[in-house]
Amino acid sequence: MNAPAASAVSPAQAPGVTVQAAGIVAALPRSEKIRLVSGADFWNTEAAEAHGLSAFMLTDGPHGLRKQNGTGDHAGLHDSVPATCFPTASALGSTWDVPLLEEVGAALGRESRYEEVGVLLGPGLNIKRHPAGGRNFEYLSEDPLLSGRMAAALVRGIQSEGVGACLKHYAANNQESDRMRVDTIVDERTLREIYLTGFEIAVRESQPWTVMCAYNLINGEHAGESRMLLTDVLRDEWGFDGLVMTDWIATHDRAAGIHAGLDLEMPSSSGAWDARIEAALESGELAEADLDVACGRVITLALKVAAERASRLPADPVTMHDDHHALARRVAAAATTLLTNDGTLPLAPRGRIALVGAFAETPRHQGGGSSLVNSTRMDTALATMRARLGGAGEVVYAPGYDAATGDATDAQIAHALAAADGADVVVLMVGLPTSFESEGYDRSHLDLPASHERLIQALTARHDRVVVTLSHGAPVHMPWADAPQAIVTGHLGGQAAGSAIVDVLFGDAEPGGRLAESYPVHVREIPSDHHFANAPTQVQYREGLYVGYRFHDTFGVPARFPFGHGLSYTSFEIGEPKVTGRGTSRTVTVPVTNTGDRAGSTVVQVYVHDRESTLHRPAQELKGFVKVHLEPGATGDAVVRLDERSFAVYDAASAAWKAEAGEYELRIGLSSTRIVATKSLRLTSDDVIAPAPATASAIATDKEFAAMLGRLVPEPRPLFPFHYDSTIDDLKTTWLGRRFAGALSGIMAKAMPTDADMPDEVRATMTSFLVNMPLRALAMMSEGRLSFASLDRLIRVLNATALSSRRASRR
Ligand code: BGC
């Protein structure tokens, strides 16, 4: 706790607390207020019947509803009700289609409403700092503007159905390694310009009902205890008037969280924190008014959920699931991105097609962890292709590899080659097996399974018409990219991934996607790779602003496929752009003509380049975009509006956004490297920015990083002595700790289903959850069996015995 109680405001004046809720709070005894600011169980809030307050459910997740009726977990372990599995966020971001994402949001909201869920825990919009981030499939983009706009569209859609959305994970939560307690070291300007801007846009454009704080620390402070993030920035600066909840089991100091602006703890910690909150109130460390505000926000949300529910009729599940499946198929096609094509695509729906790859039968369609959806149905490419060809052609299928492991036998490869012989075209479906991508752990490399690469090599050597389709939640290395005649990625396309890819292959749907992240040639080239998931307890964002295309375009290191890239089956002509307006308030109007013979869409992207900045800036940054759908021969205008923030930088010295006077170039592009027109403009402005030295390369040296941070680069927190954030894995460094960790792991393993068929990724996620579990979680999850006082004693004993045995061994 670091702030005096005197800073508190009463609930009646606090943003996000209604008069009615403030009235209820005033009538509650302290113990009731403490009870209400923590969940009742894994997914539900507490009720207060005497005051007319019902409990409500909050549940995952970003691309489909994951409502568990039985045992609750956040690892994708136990069953959930059937729900439409939409494409994951990595695919949704690739649509660049705001109205379409509003439709998806509305469908998610409808299913949640039908299942009586009050708040859906999504969208996730953390920046893809590094392509190996384990949860990148759950996030929208490497760019904050695209992330923010797409997230806002989803939120508007969800909330249009009277269900709350939840922006997560706030903030700077960009890796899974050591995820419950890693400390993100990031400078203020980078935090603002890269990691907070998406949240800011989504808050301002969609007024989400809730925000979820991240597990990690930021510059030494737990995200859920940062008053700067949760109150000063989120509420006072951006105008957020909803509720902030913890991520599941993220609480580190509940009283400090309440003071910071963290309203609801989830899931229930069975009263584990109550005595600590009482003590903080008694000592004056926590003001009663802060507790009242948190409680007022929980009550406000409960009343809102109840009022929305009372005012709407339930949806019809049969038509709802049919309609949503059709929408999922349309969205998956709209996300599908054509990376290369020599004209082989679209395919003629006749002749003999060799379809190779087990993903044709067992689609790879979503990632592991808390977002895992129990799909209402599952389309396969194999069945869809056979039905599409009917009597006009033949599909010769060979699995080529094992869908779950990605391994292949020589016989499987030989069978695939035999299938290709005599085929008019080969469609090879490869990608990342499910176990490669999950919440809970990062990837250790970007390679496809060796067998998939072997198939690509063997088939492209054997046949001169090979189309490779990819299923994956994040970029992969593609040293083979020049070999096939076309490459198309469906990302992770959800339950209709199998049918949507066939729609695109035959041109029944266009490949509507454009990359929402850069695909590097090799991961070693990108600056964040030097400080990513490679040290316990800390990660240093030494690349600063140079994430994704901001790095590639500024430092002249071409990506294999750049941000914004995606080919079309038709062609577009971009006319002369017009820029109207004054000062920083400008409208860019770009005429676009579909010059081909098919309907299609393109995404007009507007990047801003500052020609004479005081501060070092990325060569260009996306400041607006619009997806234009056009019939053959038709012309339409892409209209993009710019405002002050389109030109501004965050001046850390004065803690303000500033747009300097000078010359700016507006670059109109179809990707970050395919700029088709430019326009210059001059701004006049009184804004003055304090100069700051640029780094010599994209990776700051110790000295440069210290200058960016404005202090010495902090040392990572040592693993010993143990404390609340120590993980069960850390304990293994001492003798007694090892014994204790062993006993704990045994107890936990017993609690895990013994199902031999448990999928690899679920087992891997669970294992990672267990080893990364902080000690404080033991008290929170013990259902009252282990108090924090006992945990304190336990930690003291573990530390004392380790110290004395260390001393003894030194003697
Ligand atoms: C995840 C959240 C999720 C929550 C509930 C956490 O582990 O980080 O994204 O909403 O569990 O399942």
What does this structure look like?
A hairpin with a 4-residue loop joins strand 22 (649-651) and strand 23 (656-658). The protein is 33% helix and 16% strand. Strands 9-14-13-12-10-11 form a six-stranded mixed β-sheet, with helices on both faces. The protein is globular, with a radius of gyration of 27 Å. The protein has four domains: 18-311, TIM Barrel (Alpha-Beta Barrel), CATH 3.20.20; 332-515, Rossmann fold, CATH 3.40.50; 566-697, Immunoglobulins (Immunoglobulin-like, Sandwich); 730-810, no CATH class. The protein is an alpha/beta fold and 811 residues long. The longest helix is centred in the middle third of the chain and has 23 residues, at 288-310. The structure holds beta-D-glucopyranose (BGC). Beta-D-glucopyranose binds at residues 60-61, 74, 121, 168, 247-248, 370.
Q: How are the strands of the biggest sheet laid out side by side? A: 9-14-13-12-10-11
CATH fold group of the largest domain: TIM Barrel
**Per DSSP, what share of the residues sits in E-state strands of 2 or more residues?**
15-25%
Rg over CA atoms, rounded to whole Å, is 27 Å
InterPro entries: Cellulose_deg_GH3, Fn3-like, GH, Glyco_hydro_3_AS, Glyco_hydro_3_C, Glyco_hydro_3_C_sf, Glyco_hydro_3_N, Glyco_hydro_3_N_sf
Family: Belongs to the glycosyl hydrolase 3 family.
Keywords: Carbohydrate metabolism, Glycosidase, Hydrolase
GO molecular function: hydrolase activity
